[in-house]
Request: fold
Amino acid sequence: MRKQLVAWTILTSALVAVAVWTVLGPPDHAAGPHLPSRDLTASMR
Reply:
């Protein structure tokens, strides 16, 4: 029962990830310390 629950959770997470990837597309850049919002506020100052 427990293995089935873990497998179901992993499968569901994978499907959600694929759906989000399909809708939004791959990220333009790797997530790092420089976030676009921080760069935007820094350039506005």
Observations:
- DSSP finds two helices and no strands in the chain.
- The radius of gyration is 17 Å.
- The chain has a mean pLDDT of 77.
- The helical segments are 2-24, 36-44.
